């Protein structure tokens, strides 16, 4: 085991539960003798030499009364979190959840976050509050910068795409990784490859739709406020040969409590082949929604920590494959850039 | 309209019905003013300058009593063919279906096929008998060679992969295009991209299966004799990161007459993501089976005819994207080879 | 052909398009020689001697600018209606669509409706405005009563369950048929039989959900205002042995324009069998939404007209099987009551 | 806990594993304080006073080398059995599996079975060998009769429908319960209710199919020899208003080892509603195949044991709801007969 990431988190939702429990799950597999090359669900066992269980939670911020003031290990399992309780023993890190910033935070409150980050020794601040709070993303990003802590933005808010902010991180030699994580196996990527395949094979798209539903808080929130999410998901499907005006996306078709943290997506694709005869595809995708996020967060925080350890400020191309909106945009980065960035993180660390 | 392909066919099954009716379907669309760039289900409106309706049937061989001795236009719609009757007027080419070769054919019978091909003026012989008759594929390929007619092999039998045969075609300056067409939107390619996506995203394949069923004669035949087809379909799924020992394929789960020429495929993929939590995909694909073949045959015969017109003997890389087993194997050809081959067919023809 | 129903309609939506076109569809089948016993989708070829094509539209009310003032045959096909245009010739009845009542209608406007009904000679007024307009249901029901015209209420608003109103209809000898049509093959009835089967066989329901989506105006309206519809749908699933607290229903998961007048429903049922081992059912139901209504409306209006012709005022038990909330409630009526009522409508008519 | 059923079994397949493990599963639930009224998957907690864990295995016959000569508890888990190992402690009854009868058994071998049944003290012999061995069903039934042991036939072979055999059981005062268990939640019953619903609502069946597949030995066997099973399953769908000539059934679409003892069924129903417009239902059913049998076997053996205890020879109507082909045929029994029979088994037993 290499030196663990000293991790602070802003937001204590299901994603953090998945990350926390999952790290212990893999620790248990390793203890049972499974090689990390064979870990299920893991593509890169090491990034910058850091393994998937090498995480130490050192600070946490949230605003929910069930969480603020509780010990980390209790807060992360408290309602409304409903990620399943995995069959592993969990530690209870000696960390009390701090009250997070309110929308009308004072300079004193901001400074308190900076101090907390500093005194915790955190290497990385993972930002994963609910979608839509641009002010919060900006505030935590600025606090991390001031504390010299690498910042990872899981949400669609602007952070790494904020050129001024990115320049400040670069100047300070602090990593800034974002924005918006691309789910491990998201509806969008499945939909995208099916539409792409249709086009690539020379069939004509007639119509297509995608519905998502589930039982965590996201599906309650998105049910009413899905318009921007809808557009973002349509953008994710856009590619050569695909007419997205023929595609409908429903980000939240409904909150179905019994599904808990599972997400179900229904996809339909109708097309025309030779002589205009129809082809149809109907697909049902079921995933553990927060595992879908944590499986990617594990890469983002390792990139951030590894970059920090080699003093690589600003954005790292190694994070590109798991981001929806990387700094500078996807077209800026080639597969070679990603490989090179990963090598750099590995190489230098290995040399230490 | 450019000069039509003078086409002979060995086998008068649903694929030929789809090809014949489809050519008229597109002729009708063009007559209604639709640009060929907007034809549904067509990726390449022109290959070597030849459009999708530029086909003239000049000879046909079959052994079924419902077909032998009938006029082409009657035979192609006769039972057990059950491709749908499209809403287009059909011509009835002045061609009588000849008795095809029996398994124990005599030299005289072979010579009769050669003569028929010669006197018909055929440019291309399209071979699409039922799967499994290697002797027939070889015999028709040799007859075509002797008659100086380009040969297209739609089936998994060896023809273009038979090195001796290929050398003979090359020496004679006659095109030989094969083997085994890759369906327009086949179950294999859909299954393959889903398995590839899972691997690419770093999830672990737990298990997967694929079942195919339909109501044409193929599904009756394959029900009992699917072992080689099963292996061929498993091969088609093999790729980096995919453990096909975890995949089961049932080429024919059953003959369901009411489906007629439709094929339905059921796919399931079970995987593990972060912390070993499950992901599952269930997909139903429904296609018009013979359109799925004809949408590819249209490219194969255009490549063959265009190659013949420019005296390009042997195999043409332009056919690679629509073949399962091209001469020499897939790895031999790059995307650039395909583009170059297409350009060559276009360029020279255009210069005529 | 028996004497046609002289029919007035309040609301000119897809249901009326389906009813109007469908009547002609069956007329065409009959003209082609098909016996009405073999009509697809028809359980009772005759009710009170009236066939499914025996409809004559004599008056119509609507408020949409695309419809008011137009001829019936134009209005019924005008946007936002998007029921498919069936492959039949349509007559264009000599009826102009009248402006319907506004929410703040005056006594004069009310009287105009009564006069219009009287002068049209209508036997039945079919009420099928959008769900939720209790004032409109009441107003049209009172106008019909005053005009001596039978009233059919397709919606969940109170009419036949309004005891005072029912008594007035009974006293006047005018039929009042309602409330709320039960779709021909609705999601609720499919869901209900699956849940009932599980219980009947002795398996334990773990959880279940139902999502509905489509491309007509209903799905746009219900997306935001589905709470009462949700409860009504849950009620429809309630039965002995079924714990509906384990069931979630989403009346509109989304408006998907490309589906037009089609409705898709996704059902899931999870249960436990012997030793607590799981069983799961996943079902997709696709229907032509307005045919699903018209297939039932055809029975309601025939019951109403037949009852009027034999001077049977008030409610008729013959309508019970196709209503969600019949006057007095479902438990009041046995299968024998329904048969008896049908016989009465038939018998007396036959005796005329 | 009442007096356990002393049970002998002919055949040690997955069904016996499910029965054996399930009995312990419910014993554990009871020990944890769950009332038997709340047992998941159990409709009748008591039959004749006997609970679902009241089973004692006293003899077993099989021919598989992995099983013969082994202790019961080992044999029941041995390959090719692949019912899941439930999370309960299992006893290992002091019973060695005897070699079962071969097809050409001698009188001596037959007598050995009779003796073994006698000396074991068995009350009931449960016959659940693979389908198709009529000689075996007859032989074991005769042996049980001679030993005075009640006989339960889970298979489609003739036993309770063999009038001569039934008369002999009646004369001897020994229960004979069969034939052919109706799965707890089988594909047939689900398919049947959907077809019945369509008819009941007045829609017209266009076509329908049903495919079954799974990973236990049944699906390997049925793949090649499914013709009689197909007809039996079609019979099970027959009902008023359903034209089974429009239905196709594939008893085994394939053996998919990864599914182990799970069964998956795919159902499709296409119909026509008002104006001939289409309705379609697609359903996927997934069950634990052997739980589906054991959940019914538990009723059959309790009926048999309770009947034996009250000296009710021959068939008992209490078994009718869980049999496909009860003695005398389904129409012979009313729901009242079943209730009466259950009461008789309960009442007399209670009075002891």
UniProtKB/TrEMBL annotation, chains A, B, C, D:
InterPro entries: MIPS (IPR052199), Myo-inos-1-P_Synthase_GAPDH (IPR013021), NAD(P)-bd_dom_sf (IPR036291). The lineage of its organism: Bacteria, Bacillati, Actinomycetota, Actinomycetes, Pseudonocardiales. It comes from the Bacteria. Residues 186-290 form the Myo-inositol-1-phosphate synthase GAPDH-like domain. Pfam families: Inos-1-P_synth. This is Myo-inositol-1-phosphate synthase GAPDH-like domain-containing protein.
């Amino acid at each position: 085991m290499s030196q663990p990431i000293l991790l602070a988190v802003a937001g204590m939702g299901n994603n953090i539960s998945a990350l926390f429990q999952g790290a212990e799950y893999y620790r248990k597999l390793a203890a049972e003798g499974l090689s990390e090359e064979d870990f299920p669900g893991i593509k890169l066992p090491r990034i910058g030499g850091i393994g998937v269980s090498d995480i130490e939670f050192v600070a946490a911020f949230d605003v929910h009364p069930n969480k603020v003031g509780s010990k980390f290990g209790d807060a992360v399992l408290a309602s409304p979190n409903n990620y399943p309780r995995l069959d592993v023993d969990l530690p209870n890190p000696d960390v009390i959840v701090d009250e997070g910033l309110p929308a009308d935070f004072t300079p004193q409150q901001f400074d308190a976050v900076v101090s907390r980050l500093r005194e915790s020794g955190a290497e990385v601040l993972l930002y994963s509050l609910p979608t839509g709070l641009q002010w919060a993303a900006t505030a935590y990003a600025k606090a991390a910068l001031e504390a010299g802590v690498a910042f990872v933005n899981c949400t669609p808010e602007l952070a790494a795409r904020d050129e001024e902010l990115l320049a400040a991180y670069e100047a300070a030699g602090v990593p800034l990784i974002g924005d918006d994580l691309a789910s491990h196996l998201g509806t969008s990527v499945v939909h995208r490859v099916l539409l792409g395949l249709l086009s690539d094979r020379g069939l004509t798209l007639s119509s297509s739709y995608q519905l998502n539903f589930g039982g965590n808080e996201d599906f309650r929130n998105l049910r009413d406020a899905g318009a921007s999410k809808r557009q973002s998901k349509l953008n994710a499907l856009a590619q050569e040969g695909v007419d997205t005006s023929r595609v409908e996306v429903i980000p939240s078709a409904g909150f179905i409590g019994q599904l808990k943290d599972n997400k179900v997506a229904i996809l339909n694709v109708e097309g025309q082949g030779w002589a205009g005869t129809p082809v149809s595809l109907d697909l049902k995708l079921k995933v553990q929604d927060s595992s879908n996020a944590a499986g990617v967060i594990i890469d983002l925080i390792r990139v951030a920590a590894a970059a920090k350890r080699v003093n690589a400020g600003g954005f790292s191309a190694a994070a590109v494959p798991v981001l929806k909106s990387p700094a500078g945009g996807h077209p800026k980065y080639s597969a070679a850039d990603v490989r090179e960035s990963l090598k750099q993180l590995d190489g230098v660390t290995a040399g230490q």
